[in-house]
Amino acid sequence: MMLPVLVLSLAWFDAKPSVYRAEAARLTTAMIQTFYDSKKTIWKPLVTSSESVGRQGYTFWSSLLAWQAIIEAAKVDAKRWKPDVDKYFDTLEQYFDKHGHAYCAWTYFPGNDDQFYDDNTWAVIACMEAYAITGEPRFEARGAEIFNGFVRGGWDNSDNPGGLRWGTKAGLQDRSDRTVSATAPGALAALLLAPTGDRAGYEAWAKRALDWIRTKLSAGNGLIYDGFRAPNFSRMPTIWTYNTGVPIRAALEYARQAKDESYRKWAIAMGDACVDRTQSPMFDGSVADLSKRYWYDSTFFIHYLVDGMRELTRATGDQKYVNEARREANYVKNQLRDEDGLYLRNMRLWMIDAKRLAAYQRLTSQSTPTLLPDASERSMEPTDMTKPVGQRPIVKTLLANAGAARMFWLLSH
């Protein structure tokens, strides 16, 4: 029984774009069939999870990422997927606050002030990519509306610490955090808007954001910290994969538009850190054998880094960046795809369940760490919340599958 698994693993290690494209198409179709309620026109969970509001529907980020996967699909196979770009954009309208010029974390209702700057900067990026594919003015108009009507207002002009805040909801201290998750896609959003309007102004905004990240949140090893935590604005020590992945793509885009080689060199330094398996976090430091180490967080984060690494290979011609992205995608396919064809969330197999722990032990030849089940992989139905985390049922989520689908599409072209 081991031979087919070995053959599958080897095939995926040398996978070509057509292989990723086939899996991307299959998974995107399965994602829609599993999670999209066409009657209520909303992305909905099978059971309550960490990403949903009960069984009513998914939050905006998950729904946006599903749309981003479909946008990426349309770049590869326009005939099949381009018509869906409009449809699943319209699904997001129920989250939009017309007066606040921003998407809410949950569906809009009068008084809903829970909006995130990272959600909305990514919405701008998605709108501009949809505009590039379709040429439909409404996508460019929405992107400009969000950026100029909402995102600009989140910038901390004090420079103490500066940057873009995380969210808006009153009374929640963490919404005042200044984060790379908002600031880096904010820079990229400005650069994608630049050709459509005030190029000099958008480029200046992006430069300020990138310089803030580089000067205040560089870890010294090429990687990027997560941000500053309110109210004292101490630096957060966490390094997620997207913290470095998004600045890579944004720095490359700024270097291209502004013809500033220093930002390209910075992107290369970040990319070099992301292929250095001694870096932990970035890779799972619990694995002793460096050849068996993989990026350490989740499918809904690593696609941002795959995006950056793919662009870095395009900019430099150095295949090592996209090769690492492919290596990580192969790992996701071989280790996180379940029997039903859907994907789990966590790159650290020892945080999922006993079956994935056993796979981790076979892969690494280690007996540690032991199982440390992550609640976000499990049901959050009220009847399950009384049980220990490890006894709650595993659930499949939109965020995990949309992230994996977008990753596979990125590697398809």
What would you note in describing this structure?
Helix content is 52%, strand content 5%. By secondary structure, it is mainly α. The longest helix is centred in the N-terminal third of the chain and has 19 residues, at 17-35. Mean pLDDT is 95; it is low at 1-13.
Q: How large a portion of the residues is in β-strands, by DSSP E?
A: under 5%
Biggest sheet strand line-up: 7-8-9
Discrete helix count: 14
Number of strands: 9
Which sequence of SSEs, written as H and E, runs from N to C? HHEEEEHHEEHHEHHEEHHHHHH
Terminal residue distance: 33 Å
Task: Look at the helices and sheets and give the structural class.
Answer: mainly alpha
Q: Into which percent range does the helicity of residues fall?
A: 40-55%
Mean pLDDT: 95
Q: What does the overall shape look like? A: globular
Q: What is the rounded Rg?
A: 20 Å
Reported for the largest beta sheet, the result is:
3 strands, antiparallel
Uncertain regions: pLDDT < 50 for 5+ in a row?
Answer: 1-13
Structure keywords:
mainly alpha; 9 strands; 413 residues; two-stranded antiparallel sheet
Question: What layout of secondary structure does this protein have?
Answer:
Blueprint (H helix, E strand, L loop, with lengths): L1 H12 L3 H19 E2 L4 E2 L8 E2 L3 E2 L1 H17 L1 H14 L4 E2 L4 E2 L13 H18 L2 H13 L28 E2 H14 L5 H19 L9 E3 L4 E3 L4 H18 L2 H13 L25 H18 L3 H17 L17 H11 L33 H13 L3
Antiparallel strand pairs: 1-2, 3-4, 5-6, 7-8, 8-9
